[in-house]
C-alpha cells in the first residue's frame, strides 16, 4: 500500500461488507450476525452454482430461472430500497424476497407443463409473470438507478397500447398491440424475454469472469500487478513517470477485474499518494485515476459485460472479441499517457522515488500471478469454450495461491472470494434481465 513515504508491499484492505461495495453500482448494506452468514452463504453458493454449471448438466431455462432467483434474493438483501435504509434489512425487503421465491420457484416446480403454456398462460402464470417483471424492475432500480426500469416500462406500455398511437397521429410507430397474455407469455415463459440472451450472458460469461477476477484479487494478484508496474515504470526521472505508472497499473489491474468501478476504487486507494507527491492536483489526479480505472472494460481478457454481449449477439467467439479489443485498448491507454505528458509539463510535476524491489526480483518471486491470464488466452486459442477456459484458469489461480502461504486461498479466504464473486454480478444480472424485457417487447 502507498503512504506519504512511498509504496510498500502490503495489501490495501477494506472493511468487509462496507457501505460502498466497489463492485456495486449503488450503496450496499453492512451485515452482522445471522443475516451476514445468510448473505455469505447465498453469494458463495451462487458462485459455486455457476462453476458447477460449467461441468454439470442443467436445463437452460432451469438454470436461468434459478440464477435469477438467487441474484434477486441477494439484491433485495444487499441493496436497500433507499440509501437511508442501509442500516438494516426492512420488512419490505423480506416481502420482496418471499415474492421472488414464489414467482421464480413456480417455473421450476411446474417445469414440464410450464414451458408448453407460453401461448395460453394460466391465471397463476399471468399473476406470477407480472410479479416477476415488477421484481426485476425494482431490483434494477436499486442497483443502477431508475432510468433503465423506466425505459423498460415504456416499452411495455408501447407493446400494450400500440393501436392507440394511431389515434394521436403517430402512425409510423403504431402497431396492432399485444394483450397481457401475449406479453407475459413471452417475457416470463420463454427464453426470449426476461430469461433471454442478455440474462444468459450474465449467468454464464459474466459471472464466471467475475468469480475469476475475485479469486485473483483475493490471492494477491491485483496488488502484485500494481506493485510490479510501479517497479517496472515508476523509477522514471520524468515528472510524468508517476502518472504513466498509475495508468499502466490500471491496465494490468483491469485485465483481472473487468470492472471500471472496482479498478478505480482499488487503484485510487493505492496510487493517489504517489500522484500527490509528484505534484498532480486533486482534479488532475482524480481524472488520471478514473480514466485509468474505467479502461478495465477494454482490457483483455476479462473486459466488461458488453464484450460478452457482443460475442453472443454477433455470434462470434469470445477470442475474436479479445483480438478486436486489443487495438482500442492500446490506443485508449496511449491517449491517457500522452495527456499525462502534457499535464506534467503544465503542472511542473516532479519524479518520485519508488522504494520497491527490482522488477526482476518481483517477477521471480510472484511472476506466477500472470499464469492464469496467460492460461485463458492459450485455452481459447486451443479451441476450448470460454466457459471451460475461465473455469480451468480459476482452478489454476486457486492452486497457485498456495505457493505463498500468506496468499493461500484457504477455506475462509476462498469463501470470501466466492462471496465477492457472487455479489459482483448482482447489478449485471438485474440489468440484463431488464434488458431482456426490452428485447422481448421488440
Write the layout of secondary structure elements.
Layout: E1 2-3, E2 6-7, H1 33-55, H2 60-78, H3 91-109, H4 111-114, H5 123-144, H6 147-160, H7 164-167, H8 180-189, H9 197-218, H10 221-233, H11 241-257, H12 260-278, H13 282-294, H14 305-314, H15 318-347, H16 359-366, H17 371-381, H18 386-400, H19 411-424, H20 426-441
Antiparallel strand pairs: 1-2
How does this structure look, described?
This protein is mainly α and 442 residues long. Helix content is 69%, strand content 1%. It is built from 20 helices and 2 strands. The chain has helices at 33-55, 60-78, 91-109, 111-114, 123-144, 147-160, 164-167, 180-189, 197-218, 221-233, 241-257, 260-278, 282-294, 305-314, 318-347, 359-366, 371-381, 386-400, 411-424, 426-441, and strands at 2-3, 6-7. Strands 1-2 form a two-stranded antiparallel sheet. Helix 1 (33-55) crosses helix 9 (197-218) and helix 1 packs across helix 19. The longest helix has 30 residues, at 318-347. The protein is globular, with a radius of gyration of 23 Å. Mean pLDDT is 87; it is low at 1-20.
